[in-house]
Amino acid sequence: MAPPGWEGSYHGFHYTPVVRIGDRVIVSGIPAIEGADDEAKIRWAFQQLEAHLKRAGASLEDVVELTSFHVAQDHEEFRRRAAPALKVHREFFKDHYPAWTAVGTTALFSKGAPMEIRAEAIIGSGKRPRSEVPPEPPKAAKP
């Protein structure tokens, strides 16, 4: 299954952009390739993720796991290049936070992409509680 415009992934590169098995949805890696800068490219990738999920009958609320791959040569560059992804992530996941693994790598298949993102979702899980995380402790008052 593929959203319009992504058919070439299947026919040209021999992979399925979105696979649905029962209520489980797996979205293959989406490269951040459209936009004027890294943040815009990453936002575009998240928009594509949303479209891929919708095609399979899921939504961002159903996402239980993300994996992102960031182009970087060392830890400092990785942290700097991951910052736009953290910002965009907050725009798309406002009140539910899926599990997320961020990986640094020296290259991605799509030249010029600062990041690639993949996801797994369980249809309907957005309607159920996700995790048992205690509330953030109050910040200590400064004297």
UniProtKB/TrEMBL annotation:
One Pfam entry for this protein is: Ribonuc_L-PSP
Biased composition, class Pro residues, residue ranges: 132-143
- Region annotated Disordered sits at 122-143
Name this protein carries in UniProt: RidA family protein
